[in-house]
Amino acid sequence: MASAGSSLSNSEFTCSICLDFFREPVSTPCGHNFCQSCITNCWDSRDISQCPLCMTEFHRRPELQVNTGFREVVEHFKRMRAQGSDDSLAKADEVACDVCEETKCKAVKSCLVCLVSLCQIHLEPHQRVSALKRHKLISPVGNLEDWMCKEHDKVVEFFCRRDQKFVCTSCMKDVHATHETVALEEECALRKDRLHMMDTEMKRKLNVKCLKVQQVKNSKVQGQGDTEKAKVDITKAFSALVASVESYKTMLVELLEEKQRAAEQQADDVIKHLNLQIAELQKRSAELEEVSKTEDPLQLLQSPPPVFPLLHTEGWPPLRHHSLQHVETVRSTVAKLEEAFRLEMDRVICDISQADDGKETAKNADSSEMEGLFDDELEKIQHQYAVDVTLDPDTAHPCLILSQDGKQVRDGGAKRNLPDNLKRFDFFHFVLGKEGLSSGRFYYEVKVTGQVGWEIGLVRESICRKGDNVSLRPENGCWTIGLYWGCYQANTNPPIALTLEHEPQMVGVFVDYEERKVSFYDVETRAVIYSFTHCVFSLNAPYLRSFLWPYSSTTTKCIIYPFFRPGSEGSYASLQITPVSRTAPAQ
Prior knowledge:
Shape: elongated
Number of helices: 11
Structural class: alpha+beta
């Protein structure tokens, strides 16, 4: 079916006057074909008869007869074209050809001079005839009337940027003479560029949101795992506590019962011994009473003198009286433990509740609104908690070069000959701040502009400084973020990739020791980059012992220090500790 369309041109079956397929085709003596009605009307409107194509004049109007054979060929071609090219027919949402009479084909161009939309067949004269080639063709549109200026009845070819309307050439000479007008094609290209930029930005934001959704999903899964692990640990801790309390209770009860049984046995032995002595004394008392009744002086004096019985009391064991003093001590100790346990549990529950409230607020707030909330908060932090931080040269890796004022550090690449000490890092290119913190709050700012990679944060004093056995994870006493190979990352376990709207040039670091929180701010946008919560700043004994014995020294508050790692060799920009600006940037 398609072979007919490829072997024969559509122009061979199209009338050059009506630009449609031949209807009742006739041939002139010069050999050109026309629709019978088209050529008749053409000759009727003129004084002479001539061919519209070759302009051959006929002194006498030719008698034209319908070429029936050619008509059948045209009809056959039209049928084959309709059957083999269904995709050329105009659909409901497509612009149809205005010239097609029966089956409407899909328009491929619209002529602003003829004010018609043309299919590929009817467009052929505009591509062949010189006069028609000068017509302005555009992509097919269905509202060609809108392209006509209502005031001057001319085609609108320009766009007035001031009035945001289409204008014709007459409009440009009249009302819009002093306005900025451009060709429609130029304005259309500009609009397309803007739309493309908007689409690109929209897709970028879409990718950011999709990435955020994935991060939230990952966080959700991780949170579920952490919650289950915490539930298991809490159950074990409370089970151990209950078992320990029950064990000590059983031990104390058994000890008291044992002491009571010993005291009762002792009392029974003493009573038995005393009963024997009582019997002996009663017997002697009866004998003495009998002797004292004798009236004969001679007999009384001849009787042996009475002997008082010897009672052995020295060997008696001392009576044990169970004192309640120890019981009162137990009661007081248990009461103190109960109070300390209750206070600790109330604090933990309060911390968890506040953290959950913060998450719920974050769910219901838009990200742009959340960033706005940090403006005043960061300004308050800058005013109240800013401190002066300097670098500690005794901790710096030998490759690092510090400024004389201790405010800047860069990686020099080559190892310098520096005295070794226990504080100095000897493998990783790290350096700590001189100022440490073991309570309260403090804030400082670090300029990271020009760094191809960097790392800043807080670490415990106990961080390993020798060899490569250093893992920057919170469980190891490290709370840091950094830029690695063009990607921002929070060094959690596992690490979290950070999607930032802008590359930070100045990073603010805020620490709340009592609240166990480390936050990083983009100082320029006033937005939070990342926050570590529930940080373990202190070194604790096992958890149960730490709250069972609150007055003992099982909990040691550690000092935490600012931590820095500049970009590797080749990055000549320094990591710089800058004075904190007390004024919020203009919005």
